[in-house]
């Protein structure tokens, strides 16, 4: 009976498949509302390369731009038609410094945002969780959102994301917040 009970508990626990490193998604609107209500208690980080921000847009709602991945202009990937991206070796340290500047610690809520939410937003949040930050989320669909699946604007990023939620953004960069190595 004891073995059966243990086997059931192990099976039950495994069925949840929850890991500490699984970052949770928040919507752009939820993030904006949190920034407005408790901005001094959270750290909102844009994890895009600054060059990408320059061409796509920026929101001054962020606390800091700390790129998770940096474009490696010496490594072009012809099969993908783009440059390789390398993990910023200073990312976690930059986040920790930004927390300290706000008087926060590694247990404070950190929200990351990339262009689409999936390629750097969620991975950057999980990266931080793996390094001892305890409360990290990412913006689902990121800054620019997803591409339309059909219609005359098929492929254009006009679905969801920060820009398409009608939240504040512009093409003007705040030089106080943009990453400069």
From TrEMBL:
Protein name (record): Rhodanese-like domain-containing protein
UniProt cross-references to Gene3D superfamilies, sorted A to Z: Rhodanese-like domain
Keywords associated with the record: Signal
A Pfam family the protein falls into: Rhodanese
Xref: InterPro entries: Rhodanese-like_dom, Rhodanese-like_dom_sf
Organism expressing this protein natively: Modicisalibacter ilicicola DSM 19980
Signal peptide: 1-20
Rhodanese domain ranges (all copies): 38-155
